[in-house]
Write a structure and sequence with these properties.
three-stranded antiparallel β-sheet, alpha+beta, globular, five-stranded mixed β-sheet, 496 residues, 18 helices, 3 domains, 10 strands, hpI Integrase, Chain A, Double Stranded RNA Binding Domain
Length: 496
Amino acid sequence: MAGRPKKSGLESKTARLKLASRNAPYWVAIGEGQQVGYRKGIKDGYWVARLTDMQSRKKVQESIGTADDQQDADGKEVLTYFQAVEAARDWFKRSKEAAEAKVAVRPSKNSIIVSQAMEIYIDYLKTDGKSGKSSEQAAFTYIYRDPIALKRLVDLTIDDIKAFRDGIAESPRRSRLKPKPVPKRARKVSAKSVRKPKGKWALAAESMDPETLKEELKRQRKSTANRVLTILRGALNHQVEQDPTIDDRAWRAVKSFKKADGVRTSYLEVEEQRKLLEACPAGLRELVAGALYTGARYGELRMLRVHHLYLKAMNIKIEDSKTYQPREIPLTEEGCRFFAKLVEGRKRNDFVFLRPDGMQWGKSHTFRPFRAACDAAGIEPIPFHCLRHSYASLLVMAGAELMAVAKILGHADTRMVEKHYGHLRKTWLHEQVNKFLPPIFPLEPAKSQAPVGTTSPVTVPLRVPGKKKGTKVYDATGGSTTTWTVERAVGDDDQA
């Protein structure tokens, strides 16, 4: 039996009653990657356990039971601190055994099906330190629900892969809205009632004619089909790497849809950014400014803490990113002054951006206030993520190297930047051509008049007296007109 952990302040009821109520648990480490937490509720407290994979940093959390704050412990549902530690260790042991059994039982080449290949691939991504979020979401949304999930890899055909790809492209656009029950009778709506703001897709759809909207919907579904097909190919190719005898011609023969990817066309000019910042209320204004100065994602900004700022080195460090890969974002002098003033007097572990009530920003807390700020600023409503696009777009149009922009945004290479912002590079190319390509027919400079009271110098050309002079003038089409004049000898005017 393992020894008791060191004192943590959670052992006694009296110590736990002094803690503030909050949603996040108070964690205590009892082993490497093993933690026990106490979540203080309004009435009762609850014990939770958390297991962290030290390689992939993946965290799994499990509820253990109720704390003995208001009730006597029974060892099953109501637990003391030490009983919660033992229950957590038992759960850690069972989780480890289940993970080892899952690795040991590997299906053979002839029996493995697509859904099993996806599970192995997602585990590989997470273990290898890569982000498996998008692959896992695509698997649950599209692959596991399709008949192809039950197909064996050795039985897959080109028609199966095409049917899966085309099925996604022809399916209607998914919506996050939950179906509402049909009301028994019509409800009267007051004229003073405020309508909920529309989403970004509803606003974009209002500006399109029916034919354009139809084509845009088709393009979006094809783009989704391409992304899911790429994830499916990755899972199947991972199996081929493990067993080269698997025939992969079926999924290699099916190509992605062409001309299905869109480009980032919406961004804010500098003047629009100023208007937006002036229209934002306190709290949101600092968050918007931080996005414009760094180009970071909303999730990265809301988790940013004071110790992530390195103002002397003029950069900030993003640790909790979408790809699990930390990166550094350089700051301008204006950005350094902004962050220095914002975190003045704060502690190292405090969040940089806070709501007006002093709490941390949540996942969807900016939707309504940001939409209201856009309306107040007189600009077209945009999602908060468009601030990241504005940051990248202005950098690209100013002539920044695409690899530098990709590193700042957190991309491994320039493919995503070229895909979404490459069209903005054309403005820079036009400027380069106009600056360095010499003209074939240069425009004559306008004759400047000398100021009154000054005498401009006169240069007398040395020409042969009485000789004809031809002046050839070129036009824009390449043709020319020659005019002949007879020059008088120098000094003829004085003699006359």
